[in-house]
Design brief:
There is one protein chain. This protein is mainly α. The protein is built from 9 helices and 3 strands. Strands 1-3-2 form a 3-stranded antiparallel sheet. The relative contact order is 0.12. This is GntR family transcriptional regulator. It comes from Actinomadura darangshiensis. One of its GO terms (molecular function) is DNA binding. InterPro entries: GntR_C, TF_FadR/GntR_C, Tscrpt_reg_HTH_GntR, WH-like_DNA-bd_sf, WH_DNA-bd_sf.
């Protein structure tokens, strides 16, 4: 990242990248529901593109694990059972725990600044009691947490898991924490980084993930 205010090249996205983002977002928000079959002709028409880039984009999502190919049937959005839900959060724990350790070693101050902004957005969403906005802000907070550690590979792995997390929450909205509780969970993470307390931070991130597993099991 350059100095604040310094102009930098704007990244250009290919059609395949744009279509991948569109499909990923549709899966994340549930407009392409778990188990839904993807029809090439219909999707190409809705997106206003040819089938070539659509096929390539769908294959990317197969590689990410968000779509599954069934022989002689086609491509389907994945479905998540209880074991999958637990696996998603345990995988997130492994990634975010490592991200936390790297943050404490490398760039604690920058991480606190970025996470404070993300926390403010979560506070605003919680104040409105808007579940979708809260989920967006929650996801953005964890994306910032991982991206702050400086590992592009951890960031890439975390992105797909966060999409799967949203799929879990879309189906199980009743298990979502109360707004004040959600804010407080994330505020404690920022405070632990700011205070330089690595052991407390790692305990908090583990509790954050295991508590989510427990809430989803109860549902």
């Amino acid at each position: 990242m350059g100095r604040l205010g310094e102009l930098e090249p704007v990244p250009r996205k290919s059609t395949v990248e744009i279509v991948s983002d569109e499909l990923r977002s549709a899966i994340m928000y549930g407009s392409l529901e778990p188990g839904a079959q993807l029809g090439e002709a219909e999707l190409a028409g809705r997106l206003g593109i040819s089938r070539g880039p659509l096929r390539e984009a769908m294959q990317r999502l197969v590689q990410e694990g968000l779509l599954v190919s069934e022989p002689h049937r086609g491509l389907f959005v994945i479905t998540l059972d209880e074991g999958d839900v637990e696996d998603v959060y345990l995988a997130r724990l492994a990634i975010e725990r490592e991200a936390c350790q790297l943050i404490m070693e490398r760039n604690r101050g920058e991480a606190v600044a970025r996470l404070t902004d993300a926390l403010d957005a979560l506070v605003d969403a919680a104040g409105e009691r808007d579940r979708i906005a809260m989920s967006d802000a929650d996801q953005a907070f964890h994306e910032v947490l991982v991206s702050s550690c400086g590992s592009p590979r951890l960031e890439r792995m975390a992105h797909t898991l966060l999409v799967e997390t949203r799929m879990c929450l879309n189906a199980l909205q009743d298990t979502y924490p109360e707004p004040a509780e959600l804010v407080e969970e994330h505020r404690r993470l920022v405070d632990a980084i700011g205070d330089g307390e690595e052991e407390r931070l790692l305990t908090l991130i583990e509790e954050h993930m295991t508590d989510s597993i427990d809430r989803l099991r109860v549902s």
